[in-house]
Design a protein that fits this description.
about 100 residues; single chain; 5 helices; about 50% helix; three-stranded parallel beta sheet; alpha/beta
Amino acid sequence: MIKALIYCRVSSQRQVVEGHGNSSQEQRCRNRAGEKGYPVEMVFPDDGVSGGLFERPAMKRLIKYLDDHPLEKYVIIFDDLARFARDLEVHLKLKKELVG
């Protein structure tokens, strides 16, 4: 069975303080997982972290989680491509980490 991991990210402290962003992103991702029939196993939120950075706490935890569960099948759901990465080099580096 394929399970879902959700990654959410907001880049500014203002979004964190005002409560905008991660909770609504997570809900949209949960809805998408439900539409596809994927049970959500874990959510990895990054608060106040730029999408231009490769080193992000929740992204590192997500990658470690995948490494720790090599026999499981997961799909990673994020709300928007910009939540994954805002920089092409970072996008390609993250994709390489997640695939390989």
